[in-house]
Amino acid sequence: MKIVSWNVNSVRARIDNILIYIKQANPDILLLQEIKTQDESFPYDEFEKIGFKSYVYGQKSYNGVAIISKIELKNVNKDFIKDKFNQSRIIAAEIELRKKRIELINIYVPNGNPINTEKYEYKKDWLKKFISNVKKKLLSNPNLLIAGDFNIIPEEIDVYDFKRYESDALGKLEIRKKFRELINLGLKDIYRLKNKTKQEYTFWDYFAGSWQKNYGMRIDHFLLTNNLVENIVSININKNPRSKKKPSDHTPIELEIN
Fold first, then answer.
1. Catalytic site residue 165?
2. Which residue among 21, 55, 120, 149 is the active-site one?
3. Of 45, 90, 104, 191, which shows the fewest CB atoms inside 10 Å?
4. Residue 108 catalytic?
């Protein structure tokens, strides 16, 4: 089974690229972030034509998450945390794999910039609530797969120039500690687990030739509970979609499990 996480930066603006990617990569499930559309405006028909059902938690012009799946999802949940600004940032659902009931949690963490503003406080509050609820969820289901745009640079190796981001909402120590809190609950950063020293990125800004210069960062992640690690076949950052015309500034990260 191939599960893909991708911040598409507007599902309607990137629909052609997404459909091309699906044809080439043949995923079973796509966890999409920053779809930037309300539920009623989501391109359900485009995905249905190629065999995917869409589960959407949208928002006008901003944010929004969705799960596009060939596989039937159960217990779809749009209320994983109480978001004080009512932003559409989490959608969860369950699948079954080898008799394991796995909860997929698709997240789009607030960016938090600029720091010393309400946006940064919102990010910290959001992460605190999220971590607390993950901890509670683990009591009822030890099989969690959390993926999405975390807007967190975990380590120095995960960005082209760490010094530039030490005081940024993506790289500040207290934010990186939140990522570590999740790991300490019994989760593994699967890309880093499989690639101890490899320096690859999932995001390149549109400005200043960042893509061409490879000025990127790894802020899109798959975190899996320890007892799912044995199911992992591979994990891959697919940079090809970032090179297309009208690309998202993120590129897909692909997990294969069996």
1. no
2. 149
3. 45
4. yes
